[in-house]
Design brief:
Blueprint: E1 3-13, E2 16-32, H1 36-47, E3 52-56, E4 70-72, H2 77-81, H3 88-98, H4 105-124, E5 129-134, E6 144-147, H5 153-166, E7 170-173, E8 175-182, E9 188-195, E10 199-210, H6 219-225, E11 230-231, E12 234-235, H7 247-254, E13 259-272, H8 279-282, H9 284-292, E14 298-300, H10 316-323, E15 329-335, H11 336-344, H12 365-375, E16 378-381, H13 384-391, H14 395-411, E17 431-448, E18 454-456, E19 462-468, E20 473-474, H15 488-508
Parallel strand pairs: 2-3, 2-10, 3-7, 10-19, 17-20
Antiparallel strand pairs: 1-2, 4-6, 5-6, 8-9, 9-10, 11-12, 13-17, 14-15, 15-17, 16-17, 18-19
Length: 509
């Protein structure tokens, strides 16, 4: 069980000696971060008898558990009930080939193979799931298992926290991991942390699991590992948790950890500029504006040039990659015929994760345009020339782009980019444009791990006593998030957290 005592540190400063007390703890496992990976791992650890202390730098635990919308799994009872026949072998093959075999295949295989068991364990721990299966992309799989009340949120945080506390574990909030402690061999044997109440504390441990989230909100790390995400010297717009500042990566670097996949972005396609992401959770008009920006009409860069096959708008990785070379921003142009189709006809061209189904009618189109005209993300005009002037785009370039697009659409052949679906000319005024920015939903990648979630050191060998899970870990994606498997990010977080705990248990014997 956890023990606590105080050690006295003598410090000499300015020719005088000051005695300071540092609280010191001893435990078997320290988990840094209490999001999807950290809280799941802690509950699992305590349930199998591993003494655990969780460090959370915020005032409350939960992190990304309040934001995820579903979790990937295959060969589950819900899939059998819905006659979804996707097997583990098929899913692994798709996932690893999606990465062009750049990801660690042994790790990916284990994530896929344990996915159903991980959901079953969460359910047994008291986490409530929904009764639907969804996919996010046209070529995706119905593998995304929803949670009760849409997000896992408070019910999942409460359920997992109860398991931790009932088994004697501790969650130290407002306590940030600061520096790993290593012995002469380079093994990790504990961690220093900074507590709002106690100041600097020391925790001796058999193992430390880094589950601190991504680097998405750390400008210095983004400039170092993902410079393509910078726009005029500033990071691309991000809607990830502000606490995702790469703490685990920073601490791991200092003890010689290898890195993997640090530039990987889980993107949101285009988000209307001059807006806050949270608005779409409280406004149906803003939610519709988001979906209008995913319409498979004509897409251009800020110069008015077409640069993308718009039928791929549902694959946010492709959108992100295509517009990295164009200032990480783009403009979606539609005519009134497309407006009517979105409002009253075929509806939305794509899904928005589990929040918005393909085919849903965009009934607030007109309201979104009026709102956007006031805020600078939407424009309306009776001609393409007038539309270009309102946006401040070169008139000649945009009119030539629209003319070529229309000519090819009328012939039914996209010579430029091979577009087939939703390839309709823009001929019916008025015309509409929505200006948006590529946006980071979250990132993943960091400390390179093996199939046991052990962190790999510079010589290609595991650093004894150090583990990483979830968005702090690298090696699961090969630099490319698999949108064909929606919910894979939370599935990998849950899985790698449990892998780490299982390996710690084997090392404690």
């Amino acid at each position: 069980m956890m023990k606590a005592n105080s050690i006295l540190l003598a410090m000499s400063l300015c020719m005088s000696t000051t005695v300071m007390a540092m609280d010191e703890y001893s435990t078997e496992l320290v988990i840094v971060g209490s999001g999807t990976a950290g809280l799941t791992a802690a509950a699992y650890a305590e349930s199998i008898g591993i003494d655990t202390i969780v460090l959370e730098k915020l005032a409350t635990p939960g992190g990304q558990l309040y934001l995820i919308e579903g979790t990937y799994a295959v060969e589950t009872p819900l899939q059998a009930k819905n006659m979804v026949g996707k097997t583990r072998a098929q899913s692994f093959k798709e996932a690893i080939e999606y990465t062009d075999w750049k990801a660690n295949p042994r790790l990916v295989k284990r994530i896929v193979d344990t996915s159903a068991d991980n959901l079953k364990w969460l359910e047994d721990a008291g986490v409530a799931f929904g009764t639907t299966l969804v996919t996010d992309t046209p070529d995706g799989n119905r593998v995304n298992h929803t949670y009760a009340d849409h997000n896992p949120g408070k019910q999942a945080v409460d359920a997992l926290s109860k398991v931790i506390f009932d088994n004697g574990g501790k969650i130290l909030t407002e306590t940030a991991g600061a520096e790993l402690i290593t012995n002469k061999k380079g093994d990790v044997v504990g961690i220093y942390a900074d507590s709002e109440d106690e100041g600097r504390i020391k925790i001796n441990a058999d193992a430390v699991l880094m589950a601190t989230g991504s680097i998405a909100q750390n400008k210095k790390l983004l400039m170092k590992y993902a410079p393509e995400l910078m726009v005029d010297g500033e990071p691309m717009k991000s809607i990830s948790l502000t606490s995702n500042t790469g703490d685990g990566v920073i601490m791991g670097e200092k003890v010689g950890a290898e890195m993997a996949d640090l530039g990987l972005v889980i993107g949101e396609s285009f988000v209307p500029r001059n807006t806050l992401y949270k608005e779409m959770y409280s406004s149906n008009t803003m939610l519709d504006a988001y979906m209008m920006m995913k319409a498979q009409s004509l897409w251009v860069n800020f110069k008015g040039e077409r640069v993308f096959d718009e039928s791929l708008s549902g694959d946010f990785t492709k959108v992100l990659n295509a517009f990295k070379n164009h200032g990480n921003q783009g403009i979606v142009i539609m005519d009134d015929a497309k407006r009517q189709d979105l409002m009253e006809g075929a509806g939305s061209d794509t899904n928005y994760f589990t929040m918005y189904d393909r085919g849903r009618k965009i009934v607030n189109f007109d309201k979104a345009i009026k709102n956007g005209e006031k805020r600078g993300y939407a424009f309306k005009a009776n001609s393409i020339e007038e539309l270009a002037k309102k946006m401040g785009i070169d008139v000649t370039t945009l009119t030539a782009t629209v003319s070529r697009y229309n000519e090819q659409a009328q012939k039914g052949e996209d010579i430029d980019f091979g577009k087939k679906a939703h390839f309709d000319p823009l001929l019916t005024p008025p015309y509409y444009a929505l200006w948006g920015h590529s946006t980071i939903c979250d990132m993943s990648g960091g400390l390179k791990i093996d199939h046991n979630a052990q962190v790999i050191g510079k010589k290609g060998l595991p650093i004894k006593g150090l583990y990483a899970a979830g968005a702090t870990a690298g090696g699961m994606y090969g630099g490319k998030y698999p949108y064909i498997n929606p919910g894979f990010a939370s599935a990998t977080a849950i899985a790698t957290g449990r892998f780490a705990v299982e390996h710690v248990k084997s090392e404690l014997k």
